[in-house]
Amino acid sequence: IKRTLSFGSSEHQDLLAFINRIDSFSSSHISGRYEKWRELERSYRAYLDLDEFALSRKKSAHPEAEYPGAVPIVIPMAMGGVHSILSFLLAVFGSRRPLIPVSGRGPEDVESAKKMEAVLSYNLEHALVMGLLKWFFWMQDTLIYGCGFLGNFWETITEEVVSWNKPSIFGWDLSHLVGQRRQMVESTIFEGNRFKVFDPFSVRPDPR
Predict the structure, then answer these.
(1) Cβ-count burial of 96 within 10 angstroms (0-12 exposed, 13-18 middle, 19+ buried)?
(2) CA-CA distance, 5 to 110, in Å (whole number)?
(3) What is the pTM of this model?
(4) Taking the chain (208 residues) in consecutive chunks of 10 residues, what is each chunk's mean pLDDT?
């Protein structure tokens, strides 16, 4: 059922209130993970709080020393483990052809599945570097935070390109007599799937 929603109407206000309630409800649930996620980020980067080290070492050092003693060297094991797993995942999923295999549910779906597989492969191969880079960040978020968010969108990009208009009359080409006319026309240069990676801190999943 298609209905027109007027701005400022009672239906519009009810819908807006419902969306705000869902957003607040989701935010109150997902925000409980933020502190743990920040802790995981610090572990991933092998972050050291120098002020914390200074306070602990000033107890046994001169009181005027700003950072007494030596700060220990920390090996970023978490980062090494994450990137080792990422290398393996990208080697497995990024080297296969087609990149996204598609199979049908039954014999009648085999031909349609092959066509869909060809379209997905074409779109990915024409944006291979950026496509794999977004896969990288998506998998990295999954390994660091325990969840990653990757969106798949259909995008159409148009640009103005040069076109040569060939004059004709009754189907006869007259370009060799009067020449061709140069003109700018809007043409579709890309139409297909695009990936977008979302920051886990900006996502509002439905907690219901």
Answers:
(1) exposed
(2) 41
(3) 0.65
(4) 74 88 88 90 77 63 57 76 91 82 86 87 69 86 92 84 72 63 81 84 83
